[in-house]
Amino acid sequence: xxxxxxxxxxxAGMHPWxxxxxxxxxxxxxAARAALADAGLDWTDVQSVVGANTVRSGxxxxxxxxxxxxxxxxxxxxxxxxxxxxxxxxxxxxAARAQILAGLADVVLVVGADAAPKGFxxxxxxxxxxxxxxxxxxLLGATNPAYxxxxxxxxxxxxxxxxxxxxxxxxxxxxxxxxxPLARYRKAVTAGExxxxxxxxxxxxxxxxxxxxxxxxxxxxxxxxxxxxxxxADPVRxxxxxxxTPVYPRTVLDLPDIATDSVxxxxxxxxxxxxxxxxxxxxxxxxxxxxxSLAEVYDLSTALELQWYEDIGLCGEGEGAALLRKGVTSxxxxxxxxxxxxxxxxxEAVPAQAIAxxxxxxxxxxxxxGERQVPGARVGITANQGLFGHGSAVVAVR
Length: 398
Hints:
The chain has helices at residues 24-39, 64-72, 88-101, 132-140, 144-159, 163-177, 191-196, 224-229, 273-285, 302-311, 320-325, 342-346, 350-366; strands at residues 7-18, 48-52, 78-82, 107-114, 199-201, 204-205, 214-222, 236-242, 294-297, 379-386, 390-397. β2 (48-52), α2 and β3 form a beta-alpha-beta unit. The strands form two sheets. Strands 3-2-4-7-1-8-11-10-9 form a nine-stranded mixed β-sheet, with helices on both faces. It has a two-stranded antiparallel sheet with strand order 5-6. The chain is an alpha/beta fold. It has 13 helices and eleven strands. The two termini are 16 Å apart.
């Protein structure tokens, strides 16, 4: 199963994250051209474009595949557009991989980019009482930082995590981001600086929470036969893409839903939704957490990164903070996490994020990550989830 479903990552490229004040299209075009140059291919070699959508950029955001194809110059490639909130990039990669494995295309360009608003994310304009994301803002006042803080409080209550544990995540990721020329924030911070930053949603402070950013990311995927024909005998390969959904009933509140499912008529399922995302990827790839060289996970907040340690199987439930304290997830540790610097260093550019994670895996597995390099990296996983039950994980190998 694992070998026959591989596709090659021939190219990876990004537009630096920041607040640039331009259209998301310009960021995606830069990232796409960088990925094509990295692959040693021309735009006319691309047979299909899969665009990860952004809902905040007007009508073009809803036809991202065609938008990027037009920006690069119409050349007849088929197009696909995907929206799955923070999982959009992984679903775009999944769609591209499926096209290659189905024999519909040998070379597919995957692009995601965003021009994010200032401040925290809010639902797109208009009244939509059937939209759970709109409802959680209107009925609960639950902004994203409030949501992150609820999870942090839950970890403190259940597992004894402390604000000092959360600060350690920021310190680790900021140190990695300082080494990444594509990151928005390239400055190491201390635990004292985290503690001194403003409280946003108790117990989380400003430096515990990721910013919103502009940015873009792209990868060029191909069939293994095409890669070998181009003289790339041992490319980085995508071995699994997990885009699973939750299983009924859900017993832990997971915004934007504002209620859990009833367990009156059905027994709770073992494990959480987040854990099922990684589990499905491992099963498809024929690998497991014990094989990992590194991981890229969504540190929307420092507390959520600790949760991901458990969900991708690096440790047992409630053991994430202890794993961090032991240095297991730090540079030089057994499984470094967020060697890119994570969202702590980049901020959120939603349609690009999951693609950017795969870019980092590609560079690490090639051995070209510079000062961030994990020695001998062979297997990596990305993990995040999108609103409305969108799972997202990618396993890449070398």
